[in-house]
Amino acid sequence: MAITTSCIAAVRAEELPKRQAAPVEYVRICDQYGSAFFYIPGNNTCLRIGGAAVAEWRSWSTSYRMSRNIIATDNPFAFGPSVNSNPLGIPGHVPLLGYSNPRSGDNSGFVGIGRVEMDARAPTDYGTMRAFIRLESQFGSDSSAATGSISGSQYFGAANFSNGNVFRTTARETTILNKAFVQFGGITAGRVQSFFDFYTDNIDWEALRGSNSTVGALAYTYSFRDGASLSFSLEDNVSRRGFIGSTIGAFNYVAAVYGLSGAAADAAAAAWGTRFTGVPDGVQIPEIVGAFRIDQPWGAVQLSGAAHQLRTSTYTRNATVATPVTGLPLGTAIPVVSQEDYGYAFQLGWQFNLDKFAPDIFSEGDKLWVQGTYARGAVGYLMGNNLSFNGGPVNGNAFYGYGNGGVKASNGWEFLSFDCIWTAAAHCDKSIGWVGLAAFKHYWTPTLSSGVYGSVMELYYSPSAIADFGGGVGAVNTTEYRVGSNLVWTPIKNFDLGGELMYLRDNHHSRPVGLAPDIALWSVGLPSWKGANATVEGRVRLQRSF
Question: Which residues are bridge partners to 505 per DSSP?
Fold first, then answer.
């Protein structure tokens, strides 16, 4: 009986329908878009996953630091019996806050960066459909890496009277969306490298001046024959926004603007005060960018132009600060004067593949970049990498166009870059600036290369802004130099080990009008005005890309 039952069970099992496993779909290589792409199982999309790990040790010379907010301002740091006096009774403003002694500044720090990229592409009837994402996480142990933090302040002792930047060593950890865009049929939309840009710190590690901005954009590119293309792009204004200055620090501005005199003028001064701040207004029109580019075996050339909306207003000082200044009217949110204007910028850049010109002299891969940029009322096109605020990859500042700021490590008397500066003439006078840049890459052997590079930037302001028309502290024209070199060894593919040395120097052309004489600065323990400020920076980097 047991045997019979067993045989029946075996027959029934053979009669059951057999369920077949789904065929295994192996990952297939996609060579349509270059190396390292593979097909995503189930569709025709090709994906490349990559990234990098970067480790750096940095060191630089450090001196005292005077805040950039002292020059070309309505003097928020003035103190004394009145806004135009100091303890010795000598006319001129004395900074109340903004000094940091040399011991507060780091001379060394470590940085670690992790990057992940995904590049998805698929063929369509309209051309390639592409989506790209780049995420970066960073840790920096030095004070420069912490600059621009989301909290708005990197310093624990920001309110200290005599040493406002005590305890500067504030580590920073952050993650940013470096790039994220979609391309389809000539359209590019998302967070991208600005279409204005050409040389984007291709071989240097410490940023040079010029235009190198990550922006939000909606763009269209038309490609001609023989490597020529024309791009038109609308880009976000905030990524190019510079500071708005004001020299109105001791002037009955409201009375002057509205033609008041006598008792009416006195009432205006009592109600509004005599110190007024310039601020940017809300954006109405994005940046309008155009670029014509030619790519050839010998290299590339690009001509770029941009229009930058410049909407600004002046407010009484206490209407623009979180903590009201004692002794000044509280003010209102109503602007005294507003201005609608435009700035603009132009750039011309060349890249030469030198081994194509003289293969007997230059090694394979040798390149030379030369670039010139001019801007009026649009300093965001001059200041360099807008994701590199004083050495860190994140700029938490509202003025993204400020780029990597003044001299690295904040040595000496800092400076701001202004789109325009308000004066008592009730007009925001636009700045003028230019940058010249050159970079040369040479391969000594296939695995040993070096770069030599530098930039010169000059910023100029109107005679009224320099002359301190308004009783604050006047602007200063500035020339900045950055010169550097690196040596990189690549023992295996996609692994670099090297070092860089860079010299940075600011030359202010004059002493700010309205700043107190040195003897008055000494009386409160501050250093003398110093027109030339410099630092030397070195770093060692290990980088593995994949």
Answer: 481, 534
The Cα angle at residue 424 between residues 421 and 425, in degrees rounded to 5 = 90
Reported confidence tier of residue 409, pLDDT bands at 50, 70, 90: very low
Residue 355 belongs to what H/E stretch? helix 354-357
Distances (CA, A) of 272 to 135, 215, 276: 47, 38, 9
The β-bridge relationship of strands 287-296 and 228-235 is antiparallel
Q: Give the end-to-end CA distance of the chain in Å, rounded to a whole number.
A: 68
Tokens, residue 496? 């670099």
Q: Let me know: does 459 contact 441? Beta carbons within 8 Å.
A: no
Q: Name the nearest CA neighbour of 289 among 385, 196, 218.
A: 196
Rounded to an integer, what distance in angstroms lies between the CA atom of residue 445 and that of residue 224? 37
Q: Is the pLDDT of residue 22 over 80?
A: no
**What does each C-alpha distance from 305 to 21, 377, 381 come to in angstroms?**
60, 14, 10
How far apart (Å, rounded) are the C-alpha atoms in residues 194 and 179? 11
Region 217-225: what's the mean pLDDT? 95
pLDDT at 17: 55
Assigned token pair, 212: 């190198």
Residues 103, 155: Cα–Cα separation, whole Å: 14
| Closest residue by Cα to residue 388 from 259, 501, 239 | 239
* Secondary structure E strands in 194-330: 210-212, 214-223, 228-235, 243-246, 276-280, 287-296, 299-316
Residue 433 CA to residue 376 CA, distance in Å, equals 6
Buried b (16+ CB within 10 A) or exposed e, 55-85: ebbbbbbbbbbbbbbbbbbbbbbbbbeebbb
Q: What is the pTM of this model?
A: 0.87
Token pair of 493, please? Answer: 């593919």
Instruction: Read off the pLDDT of residues 266-286 as tens digits, 9 standing for 90 and up.
Output: 888 888 888 888 889 988 999
Give residue 380's pLDDT: 93
Which are the contacts of 262, defined by CB distance < 8 A and separation ≥ 6? none
CA–CA separation, 36 vs 43, rounded Å?
17
Q: What is the distance between the alpha carbons of residues 99 and 444, in angstroms, rounded to a whole number? A: 46
Q: How many residues does the chain have?
A: 546
In tens, the pLDDT along 158-211 reads: 334 444 444 455 566 777 888 999 999 899 999 999 999 999 999 999 889 999
SS3 65: strand
The pLDDT tens digits of the residues spanning 74-105 come to 765 444 334 445 667 777 888 876 777 777 77
Sign of the torsion formed by the C-alpha atoms of 310, 315, 319 and 321:
positive
